[in-house]
DNA replication and repair protein RecF (Hominenteromicrobium mulieris), 388 residues
Amino acid sequence: MNVLRLGFENFRNLCPGEIFPGETINVIHGSNAQGKTNLLEAIWLFTGGHSFRGTKDSELPVLKDGKNAPAASLSMTLFTEGREQELRLELRDGRRSSVINGVEKKTGSALVGKFCAVIFSPEHLLLVKEGPSRRRAFLDGALCQSRPAFTRVLAHYNKALMQRNALLKDIPRHPELIDTLDVWDERLILFGTEVVQERAAFCKDLEPRAAEIYRGIAKNREEITLSYAPFGGAETKTEIAERFSEALKNARNADARAGFTSVGPHRDDLTLTIDGLSARTFGSQGQQRSIVLALKLAEADILYRKTGERPVILLDDVMSELDMSRRDYLLNHLDGRQVFITCCDPETVRLMETGRGFYVEKGTVRQDTDEKAGEVHAENETPTCESE
Ligand SMILES: Nc1ncnc2c1ncn2[C@@H]1O[C@H](COP(=O)(O)OP(=O)(O)OP(=O)(O)O)[C@@H](O)[C@H]1O
């Protein structure tokens, strides 16, 4: 799929306007705090997801006299499913509504599945830098997008886990309740086994793709591995269920004392290595950035294989800490994908062999005159918001 046009009105600091992106690389450049990420965020919201910066919907419309305006409006012309489609997203009083090809929908979630994108923002570096929960969230998020049925399985597992934990907290006051744990153990094993199998199958799919992309980014100088192997690497459904059941039994008394469930897929990790060493402990800033990028781009490829539509790639502030050859990979070797990259350095635009540049200043977005190399910005005069 390809974004052909994006329109924005009253959205954050962006001056009302529209852009016509190219179908390959689109570099959005400008100084700090001019509105580059806001533009990326406007595109992202068409996935139906929340802001990737954790902002509430009511805070997204433009600030006027210290208050957010009541409404913001975004529109997109998208080429998908073999034709042009018109999408509109309205944010009014913190609520979303949408219009898809002229048909009004009461919710913004009606857009889910219409527009697909994969986002990399600096916060995603926590996927390598922090503990296992970030990596589990990455796996589960990617699985929910590519296999919607997984969302239900995960919800059932989390519900059973919550109920088991509530029961464990009651046991010190009512020791006789310990026998009723069996019911919740059964449910945890039923859904947990499926969670583990789905994650393991996804990682098997993801690893060769991510490794190939990483080799491209690092110009074949480094190798990465991904490993998700809970319960001693058990593979079959029966094996996983047996080992999970055994682990729950062994941990039962300790869990009752602690008041929570200490074993299961909610404690799993995805191990990432670069040249055999833990990416979290030993990876440099550039290597950590590169491995997260490889995971995200591989996730996009898997989505493409499952849905037949290539997700749009949104890369926010990805260039800093990457050397020239890694930048060159992102700008010139992501063939067949529509990519939006934000950066401060106008030199980045000159490294791009084909694509479009957009210059953002004080919320005004202008397309560069030079289609190929994006010779800085079109007009000589400083663009300003009409409302200023
Ligand atoms: N609701 C809003 N209304 C008006 N302005 C806003 C709103 N939300 C954020 N801003 C402003 O938008 C400006 C641009 O933010 P943005 O994150 O897009 O910058 P950027 O160009 O990506 O900068 P950087 O290179 O530093 O990441 C900020 O100065 C911010 O204060």
Notes: The pocket of adenosine-5'-triphosphate is lined by residues 12-13, 30, 32-38, 59, 62-63, 68, 317, 342, 344, 360 (CB under 6 Å). The mean pLDDT is 91.
